[in-house]
Amino acid sequence: MKGSRPSPALPAERRLALVVATASYRDAGLRQLRAPARDAAELGELLGDPAVGGFEVTTVLDRSAQRIRLAVEEFLADRRPDDLVVVYLSCHGLIDARRRLYFAAQDTMKNRLASTGVEAEWLLSQLEDCRARRQVVILDCCFSGAFGGRAKGSDDLGLDSRFHGQGRGRVVLTASRGTEYSFEGEPLADAVQPGSVFTSALVAGIRSGEADRDHDGYISVDDAYEYAFDRLRDAAVAQTPQRSVYQAEGKILLARSPAGVPVEAVALPESLRSALDSPHPAVRLGGVTALGELLDDPALAAQARKALEDVAANDVPQVALAAKAHLVSPVPEVPAPPKPSRRRNVPLLAGIAVAVAIALTVTLVLVLRPNTTPAVVAPELHTVAFSPDGKLLATGGIESGATSIRLWDATSWQLTKIPLGGDPTVYDIAFSPDGGTFAVGCDDGVRIFDTGSRKLVAGPFGVSTNSRVHGSASVAFSPDKKTIAIGDFDGSVQLWDLATRTALTPSMIGHTGSIDGLAFSPDGKVLASAGGYTFNEDNSYSPDGTVRLWDTGTRQQIGDPLINERASAAALGVAFAPQGEKLAVGYSARDNLVWDIGTRKPIATLPGGNGDGTDITYSHAGYLIAAGDSYNVRVWNADTTKVIRDLKGHTNDVTSLAFSPDDGRLASASRDGTVRVWDPATGQLLKQLNA
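The structure corresponding to this sequence follows.
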């Protein structure tokens, strides 16, 4: 049985294509063409597809000669020597009395070619001046001297010699010999526009992958030409494509083959099939993880994918969702444009920064609009959490006036507001493992609420008072629900006994900045803390960036801190894998890391998108990792670390994330004042909640 593996990635290089097509002409002597518009659309789509051609495509359709000349010159200017450039033209081709070749533009007049056409010699001159050492020119042009039938033109124009020049690495493909016609497709129904015979063959070979004759996963310029040549010969079309190569060195890769690289498939191991047939969901979940790893094995990928599809369709929700995560195609990586960095959870100075910010906002509004009343500042959300039974969703942040916790029924989405008394800023919310209580970390300390009655049962407590910068930046319950960890803006971490409501000594000291994330290991013996930003004496901020592991019995640090040597970035979130062997860390830099707790070394990079990182979390079953990426949410397959979802919709920074207990929903809180609830398997937005 045959299978396939994905084609290898294209070389890391700049790939640029210019597609010029002219279908309509003002000169009555030039026949209107159907093919160029379709040719431009289909070829441009394939070349521009990141998974196929990977080109940055510029399309010029039905433009004047001056506009075409300007587009060509701008496209070829300022190119680097290692760039790959492709220039494609589809139009009428015309020759004057001195046998000079011109490409017809929309405003070209047959009796005024020198002033209204685009001369081939001019195009050659531009190619000669271009610094790119690899150039591909594809000409699907009609030569309308003696025009007849469905042919686009006639006369021997000697294209190969005209585009020889002195440049290095130039390949020229033409649709026909200079003495032959270049045909459009057979007449079809009005609803379907046929393309040129030659370009249609090029497109078909690339799109199907059939042009990859040597099955290496790449379609070179030679591969594409040879496929089109054979296709036209087999169809008995009276035109012969031509190829001219001038000092080209090695293969010029036009595209990746969408068909992949064929391999001989083999059966799944019997031990894996036994795991998938186990009556125990945990064993089947392990089998799903193994299947996910086999998706990169050329010989087993097809069978692994089919098995995952069966599990996704038929197993219990937790196992089915794990299978769906492996089936999602990775998001293509696109280089991020330069962008200014943002700080995430910047600490407040002595509890007054919020008041200052609101005062400044009001002042600015009054200055700019003295005759209006300042608008109420919308809530800015900092945290979100599901209850352990998945029935409630809690969030909080900063708002003008009295502060409340928003508690939503996760089925009916009915909202209950729980006043905190006064106007504290909320930074974190955590439910106890049994869901009976929830803790709210604020700038004035931690409050404990009874989940059922919604009443305050303890607090505020746990705030350090010996620092200019203080407040409860993060909170976490121990798995046995006997203690609560509190991370302060001053860099200290405390464990509090919930029965006696007293702090256990000593405090855990080592960070220089705010504690922006806390996480207990599944057995409760280790506490991980994330060092965010340090408030400096000159009122500036600098990243702490360390992650520290603490023995919860002795409150002593375990070994050296985990330091991200790849970037100077604040650590904004930590999350243990369900088995406790790995720790995911969200950083303010673009990429996040997964650390091996045993070796204390990073074992995987979670590539970010175009923004800076924020919070990070594992799904409860451990097969997904989600993190904030500026205004977006990025989701990775935890086993392969491939990006499977980019969830977009927020209009300000994402600050906090939480999976529902069954992993069927992912909630994201944002400074834009909304919580968005997503289906992590499909990327669908299920609900938007406005604070």
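The first strand starts at residue 2 and ends at 5.
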